[in-house]
Design goal:
- The protein is mainly beta.
- The chain is built from two helices and 27 strands.
- It has a domain at 253-382: Jelly Rolls, CATH 2.60.120.10.
- It has helices spanning 343-347, 370-373, and strands at 5-8, 27-32, 40-45, 54-57, 74-77, 92-96, 100-105, 114-117, 121-128, 131-135, 138-142, 146-150, 155-160, 168-174, 202-203, 214-223, 226-234, 239-244, 249-252, 271-274, 278-283, 286-287, 306-314, 327-331, 352-353, 356-363, 367-368.
- The protein has an eight-stranded antiparallel β-sheet. The protein has a seven-stranded mixed β-sheet with strand order 4-17-16-8-13-10-11, with no helix packed on it.
- It starts with a strand and ends in a 13-residue tail after the last helix.
- Bound molecules: fe (ii) ion.
- The site of fe (ii) ion has 4 residues, from loops.
Length: 386
């Protein structure tokens, strides 16, 4: 997490006695990253966090690996397949590599269990729907276009306000943390004036509701494709206070301030978050380049070390034909792509775009899963022929 935050009660100093009303100790848990060398938080529980009365392996995630997928530009529609379920079970995995997986889901129920991803950090884009992300760190309310970062190892639930609404989420799992690019921050970590967002744009858990409840509480843990169930004899949200830099937070996409230039600026200008394995960009409505001969449409490009994913959120996508809201284009590393015939010429003289899109560029190959076959625009690769 980028900034320090604290909620609830805690002792004056870390690692010192902190007593409950009955005279017994609260249990301190330090959640660390990179082996006590990077960001961490200290939580104070009613109960020891390692208590479990049962541990059981559940069914693994469906194997959707596509053996030898085509090495070509791909376009598919994420609104075509619907899988009933909550924020986790409704997800469909469309892309994967060793470090990353990308899912889309249309949640139409809420979970009665708790979830913990023990091998991945998560980016969750709320395209449609509102509700609350409940976690040990408190409640984080969300509305459409919120981009929520959930650190690896967080116990949480996503509860939608209306399960009959047309909720839609995009989830990116990464085995390294989502962070704010270094060049957006000064030597003290404060966001620079030129950053595309400011501290005030970030939303933190702001409501801690510690549960001192005993019973049988089911925690589903995900370890890549495996699911493991822990039954805990006390409520997992039993934290009375915490502080630190590691906790879920959100940034609404509409709070992202885009940058433009006299001539076309490349995608890194739209950076929102980075991990060790990918960059994540926000494309928001913006003025186009103002050079008198500028071509606003992107030039053809071969990004030879990255696979480019673009999720189309809203608006008119000026360089692509055939894409719709909910579309994903996937341009594999080494294969050139760019505007379809006529789109370059059409962009000349235009001064504004109202497109919204989320881009994920992985460093290295990313592969479509067999789920892509079920909703693919099979002629996309031919769309440059005309
Ligand atoms: Fe591209």
């Amino acid at each position: 997490m980028p900034f320090y935050h604290k909620l609830g009660d805690m002792p004056r100093k870390k690692h010192t006695t902190f007593y409950k009303a009955d005279g017994t100790l609260y249990r301190e848990e330090l959640v660390s990253t990179q082996g006590f060398s990077s960001v961490y938080s200290n939580k104070y529980h009613y109960w020891e966090p390692c208590k479990a009365t049962s541990i059981k392996e559940l069914n693994s995630l469906e194997d959707v690996k596509w053996q030898n997928p085509p090495l070509q530009n791909i376009h598919f529609y994420t609104d075509k397949i619907i899988k009933n379920g909550d924020f986790l079970s409704s997800r469909i995995e469309y892309m994967q590599n060793n470090e990353t997986a990308i899912y889309f889901g249309r949640p139409n129920s809420n979970p009665d269990y708790f979830y913990k991803n023990i091998y991945a950090h998560e980016y969750i884009f709320i395209h449609r729907g509102s509700g609350v992300l409940k976690s040990e760190y408190g409640n984080l309310r969300f509305t459409p276009w919120d981009q929520i970062i959930v650190p690896m190892g967080t116990i949480y639930q996503i509860i939608f306000d209306d399960v009959n609404a047309d909720n839609k989420i995009m989830t990116v799992e990464s085995d390294s943390a989502f962070t704010i690019p270094k060049h957006y921050r000064n030597e003290y970590g404060q966001l620079e004036e030129h950053a595309p967002y400011e501290e005030r744009d970030f939303n933190f858990p702001d409501e801690l509701d510690p549960k001192d409840e005993k019973g049988e509480f089911r925690i589903v843990m995900k370890a890549r494709n495996r699911f493991i169930e822990y039954i805990q004899p006390h409520h997992p949200f039993d934290v009375v206070g915490w502080d630190g830099y590691l906790f879920p937070f959100s940034l609404n996409m509409k709070d992202y301030n885009p940058k433009t230039g006299r001539i076309h600026l490349p995608p890194p200008i739209h950076l929102a978050f980075i991990t060790k394995g990918l960059v994540l960009c926000n494309f928001n409505p913006r003025y186009f380049d103002w050079h008198e001969q500028a071509i606003p449409a992107p030039y053809f490009h071969s990004n030879v070390e990255s696979t480019e994913i673009l999720y189309y959120v809203e608006g008119d996508f000026m360089s692509r034909s055939g894409v719709d809201v909910g579309s994903v284009t996937m341009h594999p590393m080494g294969i050139p792509h760019g505007p379809q015939p006529g789109k370059t010429e059409l962009s000349v003289g235009k001064n504004w775009t109202d497109e919204y899109a989320v881009m994920v560029d992985t460093f290295g190959p990313l592969f479509p899963t067999t789920k892509v076959k079920e909703c693919e625009d099979v002629d996309y690769w031919k769309s440059w022929l005309k």
